[in-house]
Amino acid sequence: MAAVKIKPDIYWVGAIDWAVRDFHGYITPNGTTYNNYLINDQQVTLVDAVKHDFASSTIENIKGIVDPSKIVNLVINHIEPDHASAIGSLMALMPNAVIYITERGRKGLERYTDTSGWTFKVVKTGDTLNTGSYNLLFLETPMLHWPDSMVTYVKEAKLLISQDAFGQHMATAARFDDEFLECASLFELEDAVWDYYANILMPFGQLVKAKIGEIVKAGLEIDMIAPDHGIIWRKDPGKIIKMYSDIAEGNADQRVVIIYDTMWHSTELMTIPIVQGIKDEGVDCKVIKLRASPTSVAIKEFWKARGCLIGTPTINNVMFPSVAEFLHHLGGLRPKNRMMGAFGSYGWGGGGVKEALESGRKMGLEMVEPGVQCVYKPSAEDETKCYEFGKDFARKVKEYQGKFA
Ligand code: FEO
């Protein structure tokens, strides 16, 4: 897609990746974008690069505005290869550009790329760059979500180029939130934000809160947030900042998500009365079968809901492999402020449900124990137990939700 002007003399010059479905293991059914921005000021400045496969796209976009050899500054907010791996192709066209980057960014970039002959200007929070009409302010955001991360604020444009923060993995012809919402729903957009936050930023909620607090305290006027993935927020950038603050504060829907797998359908059959019990208690419920769903979708749905029930058969005295894999991955994301319980079937020796509960306990979640189990296939009596279990769990989720009101 051709370059798009987002502010006077500032252009989106990125690339749309309609086809990517596996983004380092994170399944992206809607593709993604790699956004970068050209400031065609007296000192022509490029903010961020793109993924190497898309180097020619961004170069063509830049050439549509200015000869790349005229670029004298390259700001690298983040060195992850989806943003920085085209840097070699770009630097070949603008060998004299000075690279503005954090110290950790510079060291990291050297591990990925041959940087010999390039000129770096290491920056830290509060450092600025004047490009003529614009003043750029750099703010380090370490561990949001890599150690090198920073954001760039363009003062006179009231523009925050926020790198991964506030992004979404979504390929779309729309560049702005208002354009997107002309033909799609707010739910679709917000769901993409939840998806991205859950899979990328979940471990860093306290840092998200702290950084948003710093930006507010610094009194930066922001009327546009331009992330490095997905749409640009210009309609109401305060909305996405509030959404991030709420998520970081522990916001979640009053819902139970059942995340399960099954061998011979017994654990699956248990979900039916459990769902009914949850619904009869007036709580929304969603069901995700692990081998039928990408892990990233299960992670998103886990994070959107206040309560989660893990369903696992027992195999060789342990959890079913897909359930174990999911919980292992979830543990690494260090979830907080969520309630968890477990259920499942076993044949001659249990163990799966016990392990699932141990896993939730280790994560520090609000646990509802001991869960419910059945032998082989659920009997009518087991179904009643499952129904009551669902009701009881939903009641507890409602009580727990009250703590976050
Ligand atoms: Fe989109 Fe952390 O890279």
Quick structural summary:
With 405 residues, this protein is an alpha/beta fold. 37% of the residues lie in helices and 24% in strands.
What does this entry look like structurally?
With 405 residues, the chain is α/β, with parallel strands linked by helices. It has two domains: 245 residues, Metallo-beta-lactamase, Chain A (4-Layer Sandwich), CATH 3.60.15; 143 residues, Rossmann fold, CATH 3.40.50. The chain is 37% helix and 24% strand. A seven-stranded mixed β-sheet has the order 1-2-7-8-9-10-11. Strands 17, 18, 19, 22, 23 and 24 form a six-stranded parallel β-sheet that branches. A hairpin with a 2-residue loop joins strand 1 and strand 2. Helix 7 packs across helix 8, helix 9 crosses helix 13 and helix 11 packs parallel to helix 12. The two termini are 43 Å apart. One of its GO terms (molecular function) is oxidoreductase activity. Pfam families: Flavodoxin_1 (PF00258), ODP (PF19583). It comes from Syntrophorhabdus aromaticivorans.
List the helices and strands and how they pair.
Elements: E1 4-7, E2 10-12, E3 15-17, E4 22-23, E5 26-27, E6 32-34, E7 37-39, E8 44-47, H1 55-63, E9 71-75, H2 81-84, H3 87-93, E10 98-101, H4 103-112, E11 119-122, E12 128-130, E13 135-140, E14 150-154, E15 159-163, H5 177-183, H6 186-201, H7 205-217, E16 224-227, H8 237-249, E17 253-260, H9 266-280, E18 284-289, H10 295-304, E19 305-311, E20 314-315, E21 318-319, H11 321-332, E22 339-346, H12 352-362, E23 366-367, E24 372-375, H13 380-402
Parallel strand pairs: 8-9, 9-10, 10-11, 15-16, 17-18, 17-19, 19-22, 22-23, 22-24
Antiparallel strand pairs: 1-2, 2-7, 3-6, 4-5, 7-8, 12-13, 13-14, 14-15, 20-21
